[in-house]
Structures are given as structure tokens and as C-alpha cells.
């Protein structure tokens, strides 16, 4: 497929209009139209701009035409380095591989899945070609030849482009899983930053996968960003402890909004995995997240009892630094 065809494919996959893509990529609408109709070829900078707007790698849009084996060498070597290539085959008396017996495999499971599907598709294509060569009826033979052409053109779509589409970033609305009345009743009102930090500490110790980031786009525009792996919030799989931790977090998230502090929440899908993201635009909370991250970075490590106690004491001691009131947004 051409650059223009790929660009249109990924844009439409995300239900994005040409105007939206132009706005996000800072390229004019007329230029986007010329790219999609292949009237104009983009420079490297433009390819990177539209790829960023579409949340895909620039490599997904590039023309990978290969004219000879020399073109293959750098690509194959890079793939081997990234995918951790392994060689199998017979060896001669000097312990060197015999050329006609060498096969390659990769330790990367995604790459091996791709190769398996590719092999199956090629096998299907070869079977149709063999069957077509044995047919005498001209009408049937013509129909089979059309099927061969269709299968050949489908290869890139089904093997490559559909896979890339699954890794595209999509935003969605958050589910309506508000904390229960019991949680609201039993959980103290949000008064101090340490209240939220204690809840986050409990989450960090639970089975819930959480990422906390304090971001300062400007000194006056700090954000505390909480990203949950939605698969770990499945009520059927969660422990009661983890469920209560998440419910308390939602309760305090709402409390921040009631205090006049700006919040934002949305779900998104990246690489086929769904995440829930909550943002609290507060400088003090953004600064305090280093405490929780201390727990999270040690969560899956094999710490002995002394090391674990040391981390817990560090976290508890630093949380006390934030026994300060949560104030209205300035």
C-alpha cells in the first residue's frame, strides 16, 4: 500500500476527519488531502507529525519497498537485534552452519505470532494456487484467480495493518463505578493530603496495578496523574480489600473536585489494554507522589522482612509531612 492509502486507513480507523488530523499534526487540510491521494510525498518531518497525531509509529506509514538483497540486510539485522534472533540448523565438521539448513526463530512472542499467521496465510494462498492450476473450467478458473488476487492484497492488511490498528490509542468515557454509600459513610472526609496518600498507599500494596506521575507543565499547572490497569479492577477477580481501596480513591477524587480543585478523568486503550486515568490538578499532591512511587517500585521485588519494613517506615514517615489541609484551588 502507498503512504496515502496507509494514512487514510489509520485515520479512518480512529474515526478522525481530515480536518482533525490537520489540526493535530499542524499540517494544512489541503496537504493532508494531497497526501491521501498520493499527489504529494511528505518529508520525514511531516511523516513524524501525522504519525504522532495518529498515535502510531512513523514506520507504520513508510514505504518499505525492497529492490534487492542489499536493502534487506539492515532491516533484517535490526529485527534480529530487537526480537532476539536464534538460529537453528545443521553444522559442518568445523561447527559452522550449513547454508541450506539454517532457520531463524525469535524469542519475542509477538513476532512469532506474526510469523505463524504469515505462514498460515501463505499456505492458504499456495493451496488456492495449486487448486486453480488443476481446474479446466474457464469460469471457475477465473473466479479462483480473483480469489488469489484478493488473498494477496489482503496479506498486508490482515498481517500488518490490522495488528498496528490494535495498538492505536483510543480514548473512551470512564465507567460509572462510583463508590458505594457505605464507603462514603465509613471513609473520613478529605481534609488533609495525607488522607489521599494513605489510600494510595493501600492501593500500592494491593493487587491493583497503578502508575502515579507528578507532572509540571508549568510551575502553576501541576498535575497528579493516576493510571490504573483496568484488568486489575475487574470486580469478579478483585479482593474485597482491593475493591475498597479503589472505591476510597474514587471517593477522594470526587472530594477534590468538590473543593474546587480541577479534575479530569477518561479511559483509554493502548496496545489492546484498557486503562483508567484520573488527573487532579494540584501542585502539592503532584509533589507528594514520590512517596507512593517508592512503594510501587518495590512492589514486585523480592524484599526481605527488614527491607520491606524499611520501605514502609520511609513511606509512613513522609506521609506525615503532608498532614496539611487540602485548600481550594488558587
List the helices and strands and how they pair.
Elements: H1 3-13, H2 18-25, H3 29-36, H4 44-54, H5 69-83, E1 85-88, E2 103-106, H6 109-134, H7 138-166, E3 170-172, H8 181-186, H9 193-205, E4 210-216, E5 222-229, H10 240-258, E6 263-270, E7 273-280, H11 283-297, H12 305-319
Helix pairs in contact: 2-3, 2-4, 6-7, 9-10, 9-11, 11-12
Outline the structure in words.
With 330 residues, the protein is α+β, with helices and mostly antiparallel strands. It has helices at residues 3-13, 18-25, 29-36, 44-54, 69-83, 109-134, 138-166, 181-186, 193-205, 240-258, 283-297, 305-319, and strands at residues 85-88, 103-106, 170-172, 210-216, 222-229, 263-270, 273-280. It has 3 domains: 1-65, 434 Repressor (Amino-terminal Domain); 108-166; 181-322, no CATH class. A 5-stranded antiparallel sheet has the order 3-6-7-5-4. Helix 2 (18-25) packs across helix 4 and helix 11 (283-297) packs antiparallel against helix 12.
What attributes does this structure have?
alpha+beta; elongated; two-stranded antiparallel sheet; five-stranded antiparallel sheet; 12 helices; 330 residues; 434 Repressor (Amino-terminal Domain); single chain; 3 domains
